[in-house]
C-alpha cells in the first residue's frame, strides 16, 4: 500500500508524528537510524527539527529523506 505523508511534526526523543493521506496518525522513531550515513547529522536537534513535507514524503534541510512506504511500515499508530 502506498500512502503519501501529508503532515510531519518533530517530537521529543527523535520521534516524528506523521499524518498519512488516509488520515492515520503514526509515530516513527528515528533513533535506530541516527548512526548511519547522512542521518548522523540529524543528531543535531536544530537540524532534526527542520523536517518538512517534500512531495509525498519527508525531508530535512540537509536533504536527507525517507521513503513514505518505509515510514508507514516502520511506524506505530498513535
3D structure, described in words:
The chain contains two helices and seven strands; from the N terminus they run βββαβββαβ. With 78 residues, it is mostly beta strands. A hairpin with a 2-residue loop joins strand 4 and strand 5. The strands form two sheets. The protein has a four-stranded antiparallel beta sheet, covered by helices on one side. The chain has a three-stranded antiparallel beta sheet with strand order 4-5-6. The longest helix has 7 residues. It has a single domain, classed as NE0471 N-terminal domain-like (2-Layer Sandwich).
Strand and helix map with partners:
Elements: E1 5-11, E2 15-20, E3 25-29, H1 45-48, E4 52-54, E5 57-59, E6 65-66, H2 68-74, E7 76-77
What features would you highlight for this structure?
78 residues, mainly beta, NE0471 N-terminal domain-like, four-stranded antiparallel beta sheet, three-stranded antiparallel beta sheet, 2 helices, 7 strands, 14% helix
State the strand order across the main sheet.
1-2-3-7
Q: What's the total number of strands?
A: 7
Instruction: Profile the largest sheet.
Output: 4 strands, antiparallel
Q: Low-confidence segments, ≥5 residues, pLDDT <50?
A: none
Secondary-structure element series = EEEHEEEHE
Structural class of the secondary elements? mainly beta
Count every helix, treating DSSP H or I runs of 4 or more residues as helices: 2
The fraction of residues in strands falls at 35-45%
Number of domains: 1
Task: Tell me the helix content.
Answer: 10-25%
Cα(first) to Cα(last) distance is 19 Å
- Inertia-based shape: globular
| Global Rg | 11 Å
Amino acid at each position: 500500500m502506498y500512502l503519501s505523508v501529508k503532515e510531519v511534526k518533530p517530537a521529543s526523543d527523535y520521534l516524528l508524528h506523521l499524518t498519512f493521506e488516509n488520515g492515520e496518525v503514526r509515530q516513527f522513531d528515528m533513533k535506530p537510524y541516527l548512526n548511519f550515513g547522512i542521518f548522523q547529522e540529524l543528531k543535531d536537534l536544530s537540524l532534526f527539527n527542520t523536517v518538512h513535507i517534500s512531495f509525498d514524503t519527508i525531508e530535512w534541510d540537509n536533504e536527507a529523506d525517507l521513503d513514505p512506504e518505509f515510514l508507514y511500515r516502520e511506524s506505530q499508530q498513535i
